[in-house]
Design a protein that fits this description.
433 residues; TIM Barrel; 8-stranded parallel β-barrel
C-alpha cells in the first residue's frame, strides 16, 4: 500500500519537499539578550531535522526589535548575529530537509510591558480580560511601507544565512491578519475599507520578498480561514485572498484560524494517545473544519495546501491526503514532546501522537480564589500555550520534557520565564505609551 505521507511534493518554484509532514511554526523564546540566534536554536532544530519531517517552519522571527511577540523572540533588525543564524540554519537542515523562516510583526498583539504603544492598522485595542495589552496607534502610510521593507530585508537575510524558504505570518491576529480583518482595520485610505485594500499589505509584503529573494526561493503564506468573530475576516473573504495569492505565485499556503480574542489557535484537540485511545470529538471537529475549508479552496486555486490544527492520527493524515484536500500535514504541539514523531509516522511504528492533553485542564481546586470564568478560561488557554512553550525551552537547553506539569504550573512558570527573559534584554528599550 502506498505511503502517502512519504511522497515527495514539488512546489511551483521548483523546490521539492521530501515528504508530506511539516513541523508547524511555534514560538521558541530562545534568542539571546540582543534578539540573536543561540546554540539553543541549533540544538532544538537539529533534533527536529533528525526527526524526519520534510519541512520545518521556525517560530516567528520579528522584523522590528521594538515590536515583539514575546521577550525571547529572534529578531533581524541590524542587530548582528549572522554567523549564529547560519549555524542555526545548518543545524536545522542537517538531515537534508527544508527549513523555512516564518517572518512576523505582532502589531497590537504585543505585551504591554514590551510595548506601551504598539502599531496596528487602526487604533482599536484588543478585547481581552485584564490589561496585558496596551492600546495601539494607527500606522501612518510611511510606517506601513517601512514594515514591508523590513519583511523583505529579513527574507533576504534568511536566504543569505542558509534557510531554504520563508513563510509570511498573516494569521492568528498578528499585524497582517489585523490588516485583513474589518474589525481591526477601519482605515479609510488605500490600506483599508474594501477587501482589496485590506489585503494590500499582505500582497505587497509578498511582492517585496519575491523581488528580494528571486523566483526559485519558496515563499509560503500562513493565513486564517476565518477569525471566528462576528464581523471579522471570514471564509468567503479568505477565498478571495487565496485567489490573489495564487495569481501572485505563492508556493505553499497554510490554513489556520483564530486570534488572541478568539483562541482557536490555542484551543483543544491536542495529543491523542499511542495506545489506541479514542480520538476526542473536539479533534474530529477541528480536523473536519479545516478539511472542509480546504476542499473549498481547490476550485479557486491549485497552490499546494498545508493544514495545521487537530491532526493527531496517522489514519486521519493519510485520509486527508487521499481526499486531495491538502498536500502537507502540519504538526505542532505533538513535536514539543516527541521530536521523532514524523519518522515514526512515516515508518508506521506509531499510529497516534503522544497523549498529554489530560494535563492541560485547569483544576478548580488549584485556584479557588479565581471565580470569574473568563479569567479561568484565560489561565487555561495561556497555561496550555505556556506548557508547550516550556517544553521547547527545555529541549533547547538539552533537558528532558516535563509532561507531568499541570496547566496552572505551566501558567506560573511561563510568566516567570518571560519576566526573566525580559530583564536580561540588552540594546532594547520598551516603547512608551
Amino acid at each position: 500500500m502506498q505511503n502517502l505521507l512519504a511522497q515527495p511534493l514539488k512546489l511551483p518554484c521548483g523546490v521539492v519537499l521530501s515528504n508530506r509532514i511539516a513541523k508547524a511554526a511555534m514560538t521558541e523564546g530562545l534568542a539571546d539578550e540582543y534578539h540573536c540566534a543561540t546554540d539553543r536554536h541549533e540544538r532544538l532544530y537539529r533534533g527536529w531535522s533528525q526527526g524526519g519531517a520534510g519541512l520545518l517552519l521556525t517560530g516567528n522571527v520579528q522584523v522590528d526589535r521594538s515590536h515583539l511577540e514575546r521577550p525571547g523572540n529572534l529578531v533581524i533588525d541590524n542587530n548582528g548575529g549572522l554567523e549564529a543564524l547560519k549555524a542555526y540554519a545548518r543545524a536545522g537542515t542537517e538531515a537534508g530537509n527544508h527549513l523555512w523562516m516564518q517572518i512576523n510583526h505582532p502589531g497590537r498583539q504585543t505585551p504591554g510591558e514590551l510595548n506601551g504603544a504598539p502599531l496596528a492598522p487602526s487604533a482599536i485595542p484588543l478585547r481581552m480580560a485584564g490589561d496585558k495589552f496596551a492600546p495601539p496607534r494607527a500606522m501612518t502610510e510611511a510606517q506601513i511601507l517601512d514594515v514591508i521593507r523590513r519583511w523583505a530585508h529579513v527574507a533576504r537575510t534568511a536566504r543569505e544565512a542558509g534557510f531554504t524558504g520563508v513563510q509570511i505570518h498573516a494569521a492568528h491576529g498578528y499585524l497582517l491578519s489585523q490588516f485583513l480583518s474589518p474589525l481591526s482595520n477601519q482605515r479609510t485610505d488605500a490600506w483599508g475599507g474594501s477587501l482589496e485594500n485590506r489585503a494590500r499589505a499582505l500582497l505587497e509584503v509578498y511582492r517585496a520578498i519575491r523581488k528580494a529573494t528571486g523566483p526559485d526561493f519558496p515563499i509560503s503564506v500562513k493565513m486564517n480561514s476565518a477569525d471566528f468573530q462576528k464581523g471579522g475576516f471570514d471564509s468567503d473573504e479568505c477565498l478571495h485572498v487565496v485567489r490573489w495569492l495564487h495569481e501572485a505565485g505563492v508556493d505553499l499556503l497554510e490554513i489556520s484560524g483564530g486570534n488572541y480574542e478568539q483562541l482557536q489557535m490555542l484551543g483543544s484537540g491536542e495529543g491523542e494517545g499511542t495506545d489506541g485511545s479514542v480520538v476526542r470529538e473536539s479533534t474530529r471537529k477541528r480536523e473536519a473544519y479545516f478539511l472542509e475549508f480546504a476542499q473549498k479552496i481547490r476550485p479557486v486555486c491549485d497552490i499546494p495546501l498545508m493544514i495545521t490544527g487537530g491532526f493527531r492520527s496517522r489514519a486521519a493524515m493519510t485520509a486527508a491526503l487521499e481526499s486531495g484536500g491538502l498536500d502537507v500535514v502540519g504538526l505542532g504541539r505533538p513535536l514539543c514532546v516527541d521530536q521523532d514523531l514524523p519518522r515514526k509516522l512515516l515508518d508506521g511504528s506509531v499510529e497516534m501522537s503522544p497523549a498529554h492533553e489530560r494535563n492541560l485542564k485547569l483544576d478548580p481546586a488549584v485556584v479557588p480564589d479565581v471565580s470569574d470564568q473568563a479569567t479561568r478560561d484565560l489561565i487555561e488557554a495561556f497555561g496550555g500555550l505556556g506548557w508547550y512553550c516550556l517544553q521547547l525551552i527545555y529541549l533547547g537547553h538539552g533537558k528532558s520534557v516535563d509532561t507531568q506539569m499541570s496547566v496552572y504550573e505551566a501558567f506560573v512558570r511561563y510568566q516567570e520565564n518571560e519576566a526573566t527573559t525580559l530583564a536580561q534584554l540588552r540594546d532594547w528599550k520598551p516603547v512608551a505609551a
